[in-house]
C-alpha cells in the first residue's frame, strides 16, 4: 500500500466518521508503523516510534476488539504517555485491521480535539474503513514480500564470485552482477546484449574475434540451451583469463520466452591445473625413461663384468682380473652419484636439508673445488684459469657451496672439447660475492637456455653425443643458490663459443 493510497483511505474514513483526524497503523515488530494519515496534529508523526503498549491502539491489538473513547482525559484505558495526550487530542475511536486470514495486522482510527459521543453511523464508517484496509494490507504485504525477495536475490547475485548476466525477451540487459562487471571492467551496463558484448575485450581461445550473434546469452534467448562456450578475456593489465559461459532460456509456465540468463565461470586456474597435470605426467614419463636409462647403463656394466669375473678361470692371475674389477667399480660409482643426486633433490623438495650456515672463505672454497676437478681437466687437455682475491669471507653452508661450485665446474669440463679453456673468476662488493665460470665449450642454443635449470633436462647436443648424465646438476645448483638468497644465470660466452654461468650470493644473508 503506497502512502498516498493509505492517506486517501484515512481521509475517507475521517470524513465518514465526521472526525478531525484519521490514521492507519500497521504492526512493525514491537512498534506501530504509521502508513497513512489525514490532518494529523503537528508532531504526531515524530512520536510514532514508541512501544505498542504506550498507545491507545495497543489496547485494540491486545484485546482484538474496537476501542471507543469519548474523553481521553477521563478514560483509564489511555496510557499516561500515549501520543494522543501529548498532541491535545480528546477523543478516539479505533478498529482492528486484519489480513485476509483474520490475523490482526494494524489499526484504523479516527480522533478529534473535543470530547464527543461517537454515533453508530460514525462507527460504522470507521468499521468500513478498517475493512477496506484489509485489501490494502494484502497488497502491501505482497509488495513487501516481493521487495524482500528481490533484495535477497539481488544481494545473492551481487555476492557471487560467478558472473551472471540476464536479458529480457527483447534482448535488453536487465542484470549484470558485480563479479561480471568487475571482471569485464564495465560499471555502466545498458542497452542490448549485442551492444554491450561488442565492447568486451573477448576473443576465442585461438585469439580470433568473437561472433557476437553466437554468444550463449543470445542463443539462449532464441530458445537453445548453450553450454561450454569458451573465451579468453584480455584484461587491461595484460593478463588473460579463461572463461566458460553457459546460457539458459527463461520461460513462463506456458513456454513463453521471458528472456535468458548466462553464467560465466572463470576456469583459468582449472586450465592451469590441467596443464600442470599434463606437464607433470610428461615429466614423470621423461623421468622414468631417463632414470631407467641412466640406471640401466651402470647396472649393465656392473652385471657384465661380474659375470665375466664369475666365468673366469679361478687360476687366472690377479692382473687379468683387475681391469674388470675397475670397470665394475666405475659403474658402481656412476650409479652411486645418480642415486645421491635423486635423494638430494628429494630432500631439498621436502625441506629435509636445512642449510648449516657458518662463516666461510669463498675464494678458498673455489680454489679447493678447482683443485679437486683438475685431474679431469688434465685428461681432456683443458686449461683452467682462476682469478680473484686470496680471501672472500661470507656466510653460507660450506658443504652445499662446495657442491654448487663442483657441479658448475663439472658441467664446464664435460661440455668443453679437448684443448679448450675454462676461466673461473671470483669477485666481491661490500654486500655481494660473485662467481663466474666461463668455458669455450659447445654452448647452449638460445631456445634451450630457459630450460637449463629444469629437472632432467638434457639438450639436443647432449643426446647426440651420448654424454652421460641425468640432467640434475644445474637443478640442484639453482636450489642451493636460492637457499642462499642468491641468483644464478646462464648466458653465452661473450668472447667466443661457449657458456658463462654467473652466480651472485649475498655475503651476509638476512
Short description:
The chain is an alpha+beta fold and 510 residues long. It has 4 domains: 3-156, GAF domain (Beta-Lactamase, 2-Layer Sandwich), CATH 3.30.450; 160-266, 2-Layer Sandwich (Beta-Lactamase); 275-350, Helix Hairpins (Orthogonal Bundle); 358-506, Heat Shock Protein 90 (2-Layer Sandwich), CATH 3.30.565.
Could you walk me through the main structural features you see in this protein, from its secondary elements to its overall organization?
The protein has 510 residues and is of the alpha+beta class. The protein folds into four domains: 3-156, Beta-Lactamase, CATH 3.30.450; 160-266, PAS domain (Beta-Lactamase, 2-Layer Sandwich); 275-350, Signal transduction histidine kinase, dimerisation/phosphotransfer (DHp) domain (Helix Hairpins, Orthogonal Bundle), CATH 1.10.287; 358-506, Heat Shock Protein 90. The protein is built from 14 helices and 18 strands. The chain has helices at residues 3-16, 57-63, 83-86, 120-159, 178-184, 193-197, 216-221, 268-311, 318-350, 362-372, 374-379, 398-414, 460-464, 473-483; strands at 21-28, 31-38, 67-69, 91-98, 104-112, 163-168, 173-176, 202-203, 226-234, 240-251, 257-266, 358-361, 383-387, 393-396, 421-428, 432-439, 487-492, 499-506. Strands 7-6-11-10-9-8 form a six-stranded antiparallel beta sheet. β1 and β2 form a beta hairpin. α8 runs antiparallel to α9 (318-350) and α9 crosses α14. The radius of gyration is 44 Å and the shape is elongated. The mean pLDDT is 85. Its EC number is 2.7.13.3.
Amino acid at each position: 500500500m503506497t502512502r498516498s493510497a493509505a492517506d486517501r483511505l484515512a481521509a475517507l474514513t475521517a470524513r465518514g466518521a465526521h472526525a478531525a483526524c484519521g490514521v492507519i497503523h500497521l504492526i512493525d515488530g514491537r512498534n506501530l508503523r504509521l502508513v497513512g494519515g489525514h490532518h494529523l496534529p503537528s508532531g504526531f508523526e515524530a512520536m510514532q516510534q514508541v512501544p505498542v503498549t504506550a498507545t491507545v491502539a495497543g489496547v485494540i491489538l491486545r484485546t482484538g476488539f474496537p476501542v471507543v473513547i469519548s474523553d481521553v482525559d477521563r478514560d483509564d484505558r489511555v496510557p499516561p504517555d500515549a501520543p494522543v495526550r501529548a498532541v491535545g487530542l480528546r477523543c478516539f475511536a479505533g478498529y482492528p485491521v486484519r489480513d485476509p486470514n483474520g490475523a490482526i495486522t494494524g489499526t484504523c482510527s479516527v480522533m478529534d480535539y473535543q470530547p464527543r459521543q461517537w454515533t453508530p453511523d460514525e462507527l460504522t464508517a470507521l468499521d468500513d474503513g478498517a475493512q477496506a484496509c484489509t485489501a490494502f494490507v494484502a497488497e502491501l504485504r505482497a509488495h513487501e514480500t516481493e521487495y524482500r525477495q528481490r533484495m535477497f536475490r539481488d544481494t545473492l547475485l551481487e555476492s557471487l564470485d560467478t558472473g551472471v548476466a540476464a536479458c529480457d525477451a527483447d534482448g535488453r540487459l536487465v542484470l549484470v552482477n558485480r563479479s561480471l562487471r568487475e571482471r569485464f571492467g564495465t560499471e555502466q551496463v545498458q542497452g542490448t546484449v549485442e551492444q554491450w558484448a561488442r565492447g568486451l575485450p573477448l576473443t576465442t581461445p585461438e585469439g580470433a574475434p568473437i561472433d557476437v550473434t553466437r554468444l550463449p546469452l543470445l542463443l539462449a534467448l532464441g530458445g537453445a540451451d548453450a553450454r561450454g562456450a569458451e573465451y579468453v578475456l584480455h584484461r587491461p593489465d595484460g593478463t588473460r583469463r579463461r572463461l566458460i559461459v553457459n546460457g539458459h532460456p527463461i520461460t513462463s509456465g506456458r513456454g513463453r520466452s521471458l528472456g535468458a540468463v548466462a553464467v560465466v565461470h572463470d576456469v583459468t586456474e582449472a586450465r592451469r591445473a590441467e596443464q600442470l597435470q599434463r606437464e607433470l605426467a610428461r615429466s614423470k614419463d621423461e623421468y622414468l625413461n631417463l632414470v631407467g636409462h641412466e640406471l640401466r647403463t651402470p647396472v649393465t656394466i656392473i652385471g657384465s663384468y661380474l659375470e665375466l669375473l664369475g666365468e673366469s678361470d679361478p687360476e687366472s692371475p690377479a692382473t687379468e682380473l683387475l681391469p674388470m674389477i675397475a670397470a665394475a667399480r666405475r659403474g658402481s660409482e656412476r650409479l652411486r652419484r645418480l642415486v645421491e643426486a635423486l635423494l638430494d633433490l628429494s630432500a631439498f623438495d621436502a625441506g629435509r636439508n636445512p642449510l648449516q650456515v657458518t662463516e666461510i672463505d669463498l675464494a678458498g672454497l673455489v680454489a679447493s673445488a678447482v683443485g679437486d676437478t683438475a685431474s679431469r681437466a688434465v685428461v681432456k687437455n683443458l686449461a683452467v684459469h682462476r682469478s680473484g682475491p686470496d680471501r672472500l669471507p661470507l656466510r653460507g653452508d660450506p658443504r652445499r657451496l662446495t657442491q654448487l661450485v663442483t657441479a658448475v665446474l663439472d658441467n664446464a669440463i664435460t661440455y668443453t672439447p679437448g684443448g679448450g679453456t675454462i676461466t673461473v673468476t671470483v669477485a666481491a662488493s661490500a654486500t655481494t660475492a660473485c662467481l663466474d665460470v666461463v668455458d669455450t665449450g659447445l654452448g647452449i642454443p638460445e631456445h634451450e637456455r630457459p630450460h637449463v635449470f629444469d629437472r632432467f633436462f638434457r639438450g639436443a647436443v647432449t643426446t647426440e653425443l651420448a654424454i652421460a648424465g641425468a640432467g640434475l646438476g644445474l637443478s640442484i645448483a639453482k636450489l642451493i643458490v636460492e637457499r642462499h638468497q642468491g641468483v644464478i644465470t646462464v648466458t653465452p660466452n661473450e668472447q667466443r663459443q661457449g657458456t658463462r654461468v654467473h652466480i651472485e650470493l649475498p655475503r651476509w644473508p638476512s
